[in-house]
Amino acid sequence: MAPFISIVMPVYNVEKYIEKSIQSVLAQTFTDFELLLVDDCSPDNSGKICDTFAKMDDRIKVVHLPQNGGVANARNTVMIPADGEYLCFLDSDDHFDSDMLEVLADSVKRNPAQAVVFGLIEEYYNDNDILKSTKTVTCESKIIKNKKELREEILKLEAKDLYGYPCNKMYNVAYLKETKAVFPRMRFNEDIIFNIDYFMNAESCNLMNFAPYHYVKHTGSTTGSFIPTYYKDIMVKIDRLYSQLEYWDMLTPENLEFLALRYTRYFFSALERNCDKRSKMSHRDRKKFFKEAVKNPRYIRLSKHLKGSGFIGILAKILRTKNSDLCLMAGRTIFVVKRFLPKLFTRLS
Questions:
Q1: Looking at 182-222, which runs of residues are DSSP E strands?
Q2: Of 70-79, 116-125, 211-220, which gets the smallest average pLDDT?
Q3: By the 8 A CB rule, do 190 and 242 touch?
């Protein structure tokens, strides 16, 4: 018989963490699942570890991809052929609480829905893999059975940064096939695009004030990762959110102000990243970047909604002036604070 829940886990270069992730699935109090491990040509022993677990438990299936294609490709490869009625995603350095699948399964058996959305616990580890802090992010419990209410709740999820994650959701596989949603091949930010496509016409969802997913973040690096395509990819998110609101006939002044603040946050993050020497951008390059960005229809659409309170609100008002020197100075200041006063940066952001 087909399992009730399929769990998709892309695997790449995670031999230090994957055993804990797999064990958290095998320890579930709900046992009617399959675990699909997708070895994305991992150069370490991750693939061998997957094979070892598959020999121990026939609920585990391993797919060894012929060449490395990235996390989006790994998920897409197995999620549509998955046998389960519902689908969950697990990153290979994260883990579940032991009752997660039981609670989610019970939710949809009592209230069938196209999706279940729940919370997560962000766990911050230093370079020595020592847990330094945690942050629980969750939502209000609610059963939603109409499009209008679901669309209003999605903006609340985005405000809490819970909309974009695939790992804090359980998806109905039959409805997923209807939507034809897939993860686009991007350097990052592919998750939110998948969810925008999935929820575009959705009308039922169970929201749960429940945080069983442990989302691991390895911090402490003085340099951090650098993503050359950051601005391009993150602006795809802004454009798609705008298009979604337009499709939903929800381009109200309030929602546009909300979106303008998200745009501001990402815009200044791009300015900050442009100060990194790895960007290979001079001050003249950064000024050219800014002037081209404020000519974009995206900025023109959102510029009159650039307002608000708090730190992001101040940045929004600065951005509205289109003063390149002032905005670049703010970006440089954020760059310095982020590197030398990380705790202050975390509070501000």
A1: 205-207, 213-218
A2: 211-220
A3: no
